[in-house]
Specification:
CATH superfamily: Luciferase-like domain
Shape: globular
Distance between the termini: 31 Å
Largest sheet: 8 strands, parallel
Number of helices: 10
Structural class: alpha/beta
Helix content: 40-55%
CATH topology: TIM Barrel
Length: 256
């Protein structure tokens, strides 16, 4: 098991947004110094709950500030961006970091995001599978054409190609945020690991992993692929000398 830190970049009462972002950067640096395996970066728009509007941009900064730790997005909101643009950014970070970047993607949630970025409800409700497939093809194939309902374009070469990384990895890891049986099926059929959030407990997460394995098997995924899937689980942890101190710190620091 690998242990990492989930960085929300939240703006707490009495803090400025710049302070929240600098604290997020320092949190990632300390995570590497402490020997953790990874940092995961949240992405939010228009809310102080999370002051980072581009997880992939912050990931680029942190990959430059660190030398060992993996950096992942949790998540990059796929319906509000063009999958090819996100794929190009992911490939760039994969190649230049020596394979230390993980791309987590999800549907997102707040409807205002879809309104502001012009994606519309259709992109959220029906367009996610098409966007995900196009993104994965971009990260795995030497050239790609758009042949779906939302994205149609001529065949173009993938530059930079993720396989050009000196790490020897064919491309960045891709994980999918899953909150329902439908999204579990989506990830399982493609053999993509799941990112399971803090809104559900361990028992429900175990059920989702079991369902993923079942659906992946039905989809024809190999036994090795199913056993080796590196699912990611987010939870809340506060380290202190006494439990009462940990509870008090959490209650004072976390958003309502």
């Amino acid at each position: 098991m690998h242990v990492g830190s989930f960085v929300l970049a939240a703006q707490f009462p009495g803090q400025g947004q710049g302070e929240a972002l600098h604290r997020a950067v320092r949190t990632a640096e300390v995570a590497e110094e402490a020997g953790l395996d990874a940092v995961w970066l949240a992405e939010h728009h228009f809310v102080p709950y999370g002051t980072c509007p581009s997880a992939v941009t912050l990931a680029a900064l942190l990959l430059g500030r660190t030398s060992r730790i993996r950096v992942g997005t949790a998540v990059s909101v796929l319906p509000t961006v063009h999958p090819v643009a996100l794929g190009e950014q992911a490939a760039l970070l994969h190649v230049t970091s020596g394979g230390r970047f993980t791309l987590g993607v999800g549907r997102g949630g707040p409807w205002v995001d879809l309104e502001v970025f012009g994606a519309g409800l259709e992109a959220y409700e029906k367009g996610f599978p098409e966007s995900l497939d196009l993104l994965v093809r971009w990260l795995r194939e030497p050239s790609v054409e758009g042949r779906g309902e939302r994205f149609r374009f001529r065949e173009v070469p993938v530059v930079p190609r993720p396989s050009e990384s000196l790490s020897g990895s064919p491309g960045p890891e891709v994980v999918v945020a899953c909150t329902s049986p439908a999204s579990v099926r989506l990830a399982a059929e493609r053999g993509l690991p799941m990112l399971l959030g803090m809104h559900v407990g361990d028992e429900e997460k175990a059920e989702m992993v079991s369902l993923w394995r079942q659906l992946a098997r039905v989809a024809g995924r190999s036994t090795d692929e199913i056993r080796g899937a590196a699912h990611v689980s987010a939870g809340v942890c506060q380290i202190a000398d006494r439990r009462t101190d940990a509870v008090e710190a959490l209650l004072k620091a976390m958003p309502g």
